[in-house]
Write a structure and sequence with these properties.
single chain; globular; alpha+beta; 2 helices
Length: 109
C-alpha cells in the first residue's frame, strides 16, 4: 500500500492532516468524503463527474498536480466562489507526486 500525506482545510477553517492511499484509484473528493470533512450532501453531488463543482477546492500548496482538463475548466467557468487556484476534487486522482498537497474546501454552493 502506498500512501501520501496531504492537508485539507474544511469549510469551518480547521486543517486536517490526512493520509491518502495512491493505490486505490481514489480522487480528492472521495478522500474528503471518507474522512467526513464536509457535510453529507454538500460534496460530490454529481458523483464525481465534473458536473456540479460541489467538490471545488482551493490549492494552497501544489506539489505538481496534473494540468486541468477541458471538462474541469468548463465546470469551473460556471461555478460559484471560483479563484485562480480552484480545482475540482473529483478530478484530482491521488498519486505519489501529490505528497504535501494542501487544499481548502470551497464554500457550498
Amino acid at each position: 500500500m502506498s500512501d501520501i500525506n496531504i492537508k485539507i482545510t474544511d469549510r469551518e477553517g480547521v486543517t486536517h492532516d490526512v493520509v491518502a492511499p495512491t493505490d486505490m484509484s481514489m480522487n480528492l473528493m472521495e478522500i474528503i468524503r471518507s474522512y467526513e470533512l464536509a457535510e453529507e450532501g454538500t460534496i460530490g453531488v454529481c458523483g464525481g463527474m465534473a458536473m456540479c463543482a460541489s467538490c471545488q477546492v482551493y490549492v494552497i500548496t501544489d506539489p505538481g498536480l496534473e494540468p486541468m482538463g477541458d471538462e474541469e475548466d468548463a465546470m469551473l467557468a460556471e461555478a460559484y466562489h471560483v479563484k485562480e487556484n480552484s480545482r475540482l476534487g473529483c478530478q484530482l486522482h491521488m498519486m505519489d507526486a501529490m505528497e504535501g498537497l494542501e487544499v481548502a474546501i470551497a464554500p457550498y454552493p
